[in-house]
Amino acid sequence: MKLCHIMHFTEIIKTIKERREALHVTQETLAELSNVGLRTLKQLESGKGNPTLLTLQKICDVLGMEVYLKIKNITPTK
């Protein structure tokens, strides 16, 4: 049996913020380095934003993190 850990959106946001703070990177610097608007980043970290996968990828790239999608293995019902 294979176990899969699914990270909910709130956990993703928390992890990104914790990583940014652990690296002592300000929101302003992260926004500049990732080419993501400061307002977008602030909304994201406050839980009010709805970022695209591309936005998350840009932020994670700067923070040395990885975002990936996994397609579920769906067995058709008969």
Question: What does the model show?
Answer:
- 53% of the residues lie in helices and 0% in strands.
- With 78 residues, the protein is an all-alpha fold.
- α2 crosses α3 and α2 crosses α4.
- The N terminus is likely disordered.
Short description:
The chain is mainly α and 78 residues long.
Annotate the secondary structure layout.
Layout: H1 9-22, H2 27-34, H3 38-45, H4 53-63
Could you list the spans in which at least 5 consecutive residues all have pLDDT below 50?
Answer: 1-5
Number of strands: 0
The general outline is elongated
Which range best describes the helical content: under 10%, 10-25%, 25-40%, 40-55%, 55-70% or over 70%?
Answer: 40-55%
Structural class, please? mainly alpha
Tell me the β content: under 5%
Q: Which key terms come to mind for this protein?
A:
single chain, elongated, disordered N terminus
